[in-house]
Design goal:
Largest sheet: 8 strands, mixed
Oligomer: single chain
Number of helices: 3
Strand order of the largest sheet: 1-3-4-5-6-8-7-2
Radius of gyration: 15 Å
């Protein structure tokens, strides 16, 4: 049995392990320049969804929603289950929730050097901005490129 559902506190161990592994992979490419404070506007509603298969959490998405747009802030899939439709199912559920709230656009950003841009393009997103990342830098001190993507839903 597999399904996308709301995050529950009991999922915390799985979610932490998935995000820790995904973050470790990303940190081989880039790292934060500094720890930024969360400047999220209080008018945004936050939601975490998990993808569960056989009672095991194998994917997570963290997204926010206001009256104009939805923003994916984090997406991670257990390495053993990548390329199996988990990310697509999580993103599709974000889209359904955004549409139900009357929102017509889903956004996210990624660092180009990770190679993840191609994944999001295959999932129907389009690039609307590429710029030097202000908050991140490569391990050899070079700038990295932040790619902002959107999907009309």
């Amino acid at each position: 049995m597999q399904a996308v559902r709301e995050f529950k506190l009991i999922d915390n161990g799985w979610v932490e392990a998935i995000f820790e592994a995904a973050t470790a992979e990303l940190r081989t490419v880039y790292h934060p320049r500094y720890v930024a404070c969360d400047q999220q506007n209080a008018t945004w509603d936050s939601c975490k969804l998990v993808f569960e298969k056989n009672s095991i959490v194998i994917g997570i998405v963290d997204f926010t929603l206001n009256d104009k747009e939805a923003l994916i802030q984090g997406l991670a899939v257990d390495k053993a289950y990548r390329r199996c439709g988990v990310a697509r199912a999580l993103i599709d559920t974000c889209e359904e929730r955004a549409r139900a709230a009357g929102v017509g656009i889903l956004k996210l950003s990624t660092i180009k050097e990770t190679g993840n841009t191609a994944i999001f393009l295959r999932l129907g997103f389009s690039i609307y901005c590429e710029k030097t990342a202000e908050r991140f830098i490569s391990f050899d001190g070079r700038p990295v490129c932040q790619v902002e993507l959107k999907k009309l839903i």
